Recover the amino acids of this structure.
């Protein structure tokens, strides 16, 4: 009897650094990164099936009707979503799947797949978040305040998650995420049936020696 | 605001090797090992306050009446128990406390302190458990079967625990336990208040620059 894989959802406010952590995790561990579907046109350099699955609006809407998204959203007239069937197939096959996603998306995934491991990535401090946003060099003073207020509100959603990891240094944060994954693999509610079944097998062997 | 320490409860059937794992963990990490109280007389080489706290039966019974045990049991006319106040004091002080205990004791601790981390140590297989029991050289064929049957029944209690760790090699099992502890320190239900409070502090700093 094979254990199901884990669906690991990395999420948090923008600027917390979840993308960097996700990349580093994929370098170090054998996870399958869930690829989103979108109706927007491919940009230069993007690879179909790796950057995104590119679907027509009709295809996307059909999939919505077929309940084939763990979550989806419409942003500026285009749809974006996490295809359910490909994720579930990997999980059933015992592979761990990682999903890097914003907070709204993560909460929808949680409704559809509550047994996922929901990890909220926090900036080390609001000070550091400000520095990171400034470092991008693309923000006016006004949009800086707007983004702070958004981050401020968004951090309240931490209570909907299983774990919170402060992204202080990448290495320490990745080690914490790896520990969370190792611990989740030992959770009794995930492996109980396997233990009790293998016990039955083994005890019969013992007494029939 | 300080985080509370974790109460880590290592438990499982005898022969699973929880004692060895506990010793190795104490070598590697800065935990405080909970010391039991007993009414039996000290044996040669035992150190009061380290091996056990030695209490008279009256003292022990008074402590029972004062609800000062996380668990206690009477075995062959002597009492054994885990003093509550000393454990709680360490936890409140932010120290992690480790408790190595049999299954009946662990379940009582869980009733009194459900926020503990309950880890069930499993032998790698019933075959290996048999070898370990035989290795002790103190079992007759009859008592071997009795101990197997006990282990067989006891393994069903795994479902009352949070985690199960198979004690295959000591090093791997200890790494799993360390991962569990690291993950539990990131659990949102343990650190939520601290995150939300520090967010308030930090956001005020930011906007008053």
């Amino acid at each position: 009897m094979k254990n199901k894989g884990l669906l690991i959802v990395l999420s948090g406010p923008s600027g917390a650094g979840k993308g960097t952590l996700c990349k580093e995790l994929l370098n170090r561990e054998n996870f399958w990164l869930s690829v989103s579907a979108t109706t927007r046109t491919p940009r230069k350099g993007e690879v179909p099936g790796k950057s995104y699955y590119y679907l027509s609006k009709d295809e996307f809407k059909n999939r919505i009707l077929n309940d084939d998204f763990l979550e989806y959203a419409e942003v500026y007239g285009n749809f974006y979503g996490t295809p359910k069937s490909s994720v579930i197939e990997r999980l059933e096959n015992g592979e761990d799947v990682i999903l890097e996603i914003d907070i709204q998306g993560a909460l929808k995934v949680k409704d559809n797949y509550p047994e996922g491991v929901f990890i909220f990535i926090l900036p080390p401090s609001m000070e550091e978040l400000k520095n990171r946003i400034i470092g991008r060099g693309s923000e006016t003073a006004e949009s800086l305040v707007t983004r702070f207020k958004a981050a401020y509100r968004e951090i309240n959603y931490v209570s909907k998650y299983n774990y919170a990891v402060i992204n202080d240094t990448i290495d320490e944060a990745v080690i914490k995420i790896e520990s969370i994954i190792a611990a989740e693999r030992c959770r009794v509610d995930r492996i109980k049936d396997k233990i009790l079944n293998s016990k039955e097998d083994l005890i019969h062997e013992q007494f029939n020696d």
User: Anything to note?
Assistant: Residues 55 and 153 of chain B are 33 Å apart (CA to CA). Residues 188-207 of chain B form the longest helix (20 residues). Chain B has two domains: 1-31+96-209, 35-95. The beta strands of chain B are 7-11, 32-33, 37-38, 53-54, 69-75, 78-83, 97-100, 117-122, 163-166.
